[in-house]
Amino acid sequence: METSQRIARSQPLATTAMHGRVDAMKARGEEVIDFSIAISHFQAPESVLQAVRDGLKQPSLPYTTVGGDAGIRARLAAKVSSENGIAASASEIIVTNGAKQALYQALYVMADPGDAVIIFKPHWPAYVTTCKLLGLEPVLVDLPATVSAEFLDSLPPAKILIVNNPHNPTGGVLRADEIERIAAWLKRTGTRAIVDESYEKLIFEGVHTSLAARPDWQQIGIVSIYSASQSYAMMGWRAGFAVAPSNIVTAMETLQGPITAAAPMLIQLALASAFESGEPMAMLHEYRQRRDMVLDMVHGLPWMTMRCPASGPYLWGDVSALTMDTKQFAEELLNQYAVALMPGDALGAPGFIRIGYISDDIATLRRGVEAIIRYGNARYRAR
Ligand code: PMP
């Protein structure tokens, strides 16, 4: 059967496509080490599991209002107010099935086809793919080491700026002065912002500052997105939310109503409990050990430079010294060594590779990185 022209023109999301390929290989009984995305092997916090058990004892689990149960939204408003410094009321919160749904809906209701959306690169592939699905114009701009006023003034006019802080894939965390400059620029230019703070709980060094932590966030037009996926190792729960001016929340509800309606009540309970469970210290401790182990392993390789990331579940390696196509790097590594990773091409940065280092156990991580090193060494010698 033919598909619509609209979807025929679209590409699947590179990260989920690679992950799907790995899953299919595993289903055929092949052994693959998967660094293509970051899927935590941690369980959700115990308080989340308890909230779900308690939820199951309720006489029924009804539909809630599309944007989420009023009590849940109030709890999430309290979270962003106390932790992020964003003064928001329950009517400025919308619960979604993960950050991806919040992103799609925010872009849909904030911009019209043809509108420009600035995305800093390297970037999470979903920003570009979602813009394209919606007929928006992604404008990719290299993210500099420091976000200066001069850099911001050099940006082209756009309807929306997407800010991913903490940043996937580099692990960078914007400093407070950079956040302040972005806010001033948004005000000066009238550009709106979508801020994806999905990695806010995975910070090793530095302090996370929310762009919307200011009294005029509604006037500037800032939408902040949060997710339990990475912050609490709850990828498969599909639990996230957005904080937005109330008219934007209402518009997002108009869109969400006929698609998923409200997020499942059990998931709403899990989401609020997750964000009330504090910092995921044990998880962070283990992630840091893994990060440092891999950095030690690759230290001194002549063909790869890898900076120590301040946050997040990824390592971002510059392999441009290999002078090869990084899509080919990923293909050969998967086919010859059964290790999957993301080539930087999909993230707007050919010449780089991204390793999601939190899936599987440490021994598997070590084996996978050893395979990458063997492959890279061979390619380096063959240059
Ligand atoms: N934003 C970014 C930048 C991400 O990398 C991820 C995880 N891949 C998410 C959000 C999480 O999305 P979701 O909440 O839909 O799982």
TrEMBL record:
Cofactor: pyridoxal 5'-phosphate
GO-annotated biological processes: amino acid metabolic process
Domain annotation Aminotransferase class I/classII large: ranges: 31-372
Its EC number(s): 2.6.1.1
InterPro entries: Aminotransferase_I/II_large (IPR004839), AspAT/PAT-like (IPR050596)
First-level EC class: transferase
Keywords (A to Z) from UniProt: Aminotransferase, Pyridoxal phosphate, Transferase
One Gene Ontology molecular-function label: pyridoxal phosphate binding
PANTHER family tied to this protein: ASPARTATE AMINOTRANSFERASE
Protein name: Aminotransferase class I/II-fold pyridoxal phosphate-dependent enzyme
Provenance organism: Duganella violaceipulchra
